[in-house]
Amino acid sequence: MEKCLARALFLALTRTKTSGKQNVPEKGPLLVVANHLSVADPVAIGVFLGRKAIFVAKEELFKNSITAFFVRSFGAFPVYRERPGRQVIRQANEVLHNGFALVIFPEGKRSKTGSLQQGLPGSALIAYHNRVPVLPIGIMGTEVIRGTSWIFRRPAIRLNIGEPFFLPEAGSSLTREQLKGYTDLIMLKISALLEEPYRGYYREKKDEIRD
After folding, report:
1. Contact between residue 23 and residue 97 where contact means Cβ atoms under 8 Å apart
2. Residue 70 sits in a domain of what CATH number?
3. Helix (H, G, I), strand (E, B), or coil: what is residue 25?
4. What pTM did the predictor assign?
5. DSSP code of residue 114
6. In sequence order, what are the beta bridge partners of 55?
7. How many domains does the chain have?
8. What angle do CA 149, 151, 153 make, to 5 degrees?
9. Where in the sequence is the domain holding 177, given as residue range(s)?
10. Residue whose C-alpha is closest to residue 160's, from 19, 59, 42, 11
């Protein structure tokens, strides 16, 4: 019921266009990675991904009753500042081992400027240890969803869904340099799905994608 209501509200209050829905695997474990502009991003992905997904969301989103309603309706679990990163990774591993889609925002927090920030290594670690396909999504337009005035404007939102990919093999152990390379690869895949003003830190790195 909550998910249906959240979906109906999002569709009524925004004008959203999605491309690449055919790239979403219908079943099996999947790590979904996307840029992060607004508290509306998990809802947008939850509405248009086309399959059940579970989200990694920061604890602050669960303190506000409105945002908590939306993120819980789409299966988010909180990341607590005092909780070790390993605990979060264990939760993420469990989600993937159960065959679900896990959504994570590799930047770790919303971009205040709307431009892509440097990625953190968590998503790369999860993808590497679980050997699951990674599905990049570029989100544009949700940065205006702040406060309440946006409700009367029905903002135009765009979701570009890329093709799933696997991280290259790293051998028996993962070095710090390889982890950085994996993180950059994930972020460049997201950047390639964004219009130029949104690419931020990766604007000048768009030709560095290596599969």
Report:
1. no
2. 3.40.1130.10
3. coil
4. 0.86
5. S
6. 76, 103
7. 1
8. 85
9. 2-208
10. 19
